[in-house]
């Protein structure tokens, strides 16, 4: 249940933990999104956490952002009149996706990813793959075959493939055509893409993803 006292403005917290203005739960900063009041009085997502002004932090879940907009959380937290874009949750989704696809492009330039079924199978055979990437349109049969090979070769067999983006998005980000399958290999840039893609997935899955994450980290 969301409390009205969440409206009270508090000094912005320092350190690696922030409090969600909607749920009032404290979470690691990387699990939240920062919003600020723009010069025109409109709420602006600040994914890079660089914009000036007091920040309002929300759990990085699509339903949380949408709910905060409906409940007037931004105005109460900032103690000011604000304009909240009707498509705020969609804007955040696009910004997160663009950030992840940008990381994919950097991983490609750094040689941290290979594309195409043949190159992916070769990388799998050599045990170089840290994560598979399948386009949303990829045929299930082809995905299952590659996933099985990954499971047979990988130390961490439980690592799921990334299926967050469509062929067009993957193709544009990599500067290639018709990207269906890709494999991330041992490289720092590839790991950054993995983290960014996971953030997009959690955002789209909503609060349920964070609830599951909390349950999984609870001590037995």
How many strand units?
8
Any idea what the shape is?
elongated
Strand and helix order: EEEEEHHHEHEHHEHH
The number of helical elements comes to 8
Our Rg estimate from Cα atoms comes to: 20 Å
Beta-strand percentage range: 15-25%
Helix content: 40-55%
Low-confidence stretches: 1-13
Strand order of the largest sheet: 4-3-5
Please write out the topology.
Blueprint: E1 17-19, E2 26-28, E3 32-37, E4 43-45, E5 56-59, H1 62-70, H2 73-78, H3 88-109, E6 113-115, H4 117-125, E7 129-134, H5 140-153, H6 167-174, E8 181-185, H7 188-205, H8 207-217
Antiparallel strand pairs: 1-2, 3-4, 3-5, 6-8, 7-8
Q: How would you describe what is shown here?
A:
With 220 residues, the chain is an alpha+beta fold. 44% of the residues lie in helices and 15% in strands. The protein is built from 8 helices and 8 strands; from the N terminus they run βββββαααβαβααβαα. The strands form 3 sheets. The protein has a 3-stranded antiparallel beta sheet with strand order 4-3-5. It has a 3-stranded antiparallel beta sheet with strand order 6-8-7, with helices on both faces. A two-stranded antiparallel ribbon has the order 1-2. Helix 3 packs across helix 6, helix 3 packs antiparallel against helix 7 and helix 4 runs parallel beside helix 5.
